[in-house]
Specification:
This protein has helices at 30-33, 56-63, 69-81, 89-98, 106-119, 144-191, 228-238, 241-251, 253-256, 274-284, 305-362, and strands spanning 196-203, 285-290, 295-302. It has 363 residues and is mainly α.
Length: 363
């Protein structure tokens, strides 16, 4: 602690009559020279005032104990907690021992740490979440018998888990593979009604128009490229509802699949809708077109082979009618032109014959 003295202005005493002026300044009071600002303690003595100075031999004895810096800091904290004012870390140890307190006792350290933790504890809502303690491996050394028993227990556990997994696998295979296979096989061999399929192939050909052999269009007149459009149109017509309705009116397609001897999965119920009947028609009548050869392939399935053949022949007849309808206008135009040409040629022939007859009469 340092104190600073104020600087005072020194005045000389006024001269008196009959006396000589003195050149020496008057002597000031010592109290007025060192009266400084207030140090904040008031009339209370300084904390270290009145504390007897530690004896050097005690401090040297404590220093020779070889205490660590952490122990000395802990001793100072314990001394401050008990209201002591040590001048150094070694003095804190001495003061605590004089009070009968062991500064290095575990209970004292824990109380200091607990007190500091309580002062620095956060709010309740900010406390960290508790976690489960880790399962540390045991330090116990197992005997040979115990080790063998543990290994046997682990092996039995592994065998038990493998058996359980194998049983679960067999159960899945039985439920998702074996059982559906058995049901399907029983249905096809015992319940399902045998179905018969008729296969037919036909080609749509186009007649060569007059003069087509001398033109470039005649190169494709005999190939499938010339009739590809007609073949695709016929294929679409044979797979339409109109073809199904005509086949039902002519040969009773719906009534054939409503027969009681057909199994329930393939049989049409009585009074079924046309949409369900059309689904059966699309499933039992399959038509495909091969653009490379220009061939239309048709497969018809029915419960009787003769009925399947009849359905196939009638659908081919529908295809011929459809082709005729597509080429009817073209044929009418061609026949109209041929008739006009024939009538014109016939009129010219009659006129030529009359001219010849007149010439013969005159000559």
């Amino acid at each position: 602690m340092t104190t600073k003295a104020k600087k005072f202005r020194i005045r000389r005493n006024p001269p008196t009559s009959g006396m000589a002026r003195s050149t020496r300044p008057p002597v000031q009071d010592n109290d007025s020279l060192f009266s400084g600002p207030e140090d904040g303690l008031g009339d209370a003595p300084y904390p270290t005032a009145g504390v007897p100075a530690p004896r050097e031999d005690e401090i040297d004895a404590i220093r020779r104990e070889g205490l660590t810096g952490r122990q000395l800091r802990m001793a100072r904290r314990v001394a401050q907690k008990h209201g002591l004012a040590p001048t150094s870390d070694f003095d804190a140890v001495r003061l605590l021992r004089d009070q009968g307190i062991d500064p290095f006792e575990r209970s004292n350290m824990l109380s200091v740490v607990t007190g500091s933790a309580q002062r620095e504890a956060p709010e309740p809502d900010r406390l960290p979440q508790t976690i489960k303690p880790m399962q540390l491996p045991s330090t116990e050394v197992m005997a040979e018998d115990n080790r063998a028993k543990e290994i046997m227990r682990m092996q039995r556990d592994i065998v038990r888990r493998r058996r359980r997994r194998a049983a679960q696998l067999i159960a899945r295979l039985a439920f998702f593979v074996f059982l559906p296979t058995i049901i399907t096989g029983y249905y096809f061999f015992k319940i399902a009604t045998p179905m018969y399929e008729s296969h037919a192939e036909f080609v749509i050909q186009q007649a060569n128009p007059a003069g087509a052999t001398s033109s470039l269009g005649g190169l494709f007149s005999g190939t499938g490229l010339a009739t590809a459009q007609d073949s695709i149109t016929v294929q679409g017509y044979l797979q339409s509802r109109d073809a199904m309705l005509r086949l039902n009116d002519d040969l009773g397609f719906i009534a054939h699949f409503q027969q009681p001897h057909i199994d329930p999965l393939q049989r049409l119920e009585v009074g079924t809708s046309l949409e369900d009947a059309f689904k059966v028609f699309r499933r039992h009548v399959k038509i495909s077109y091969d653009p490379t050869e220009g061939i239309i392939k048709m497969d018809v399935i029915a419960a009787d082979p003769n009925v399947a053949v009849a359905f196939s022949e009638r659908l081919i007849a529908y295809a011929e009618e459809q082709v005729d309808n597509l080429t009817q206008r073209l044929r009418e135009d061609q026949m109209r032109g041929a008739r006009e040409s024939f009538e014109d040629a016939e009129a010219k022939l009659i006129a030529a014959q009359e001219t010849v007859a007149n010439l013969q009469e005159r000559l």
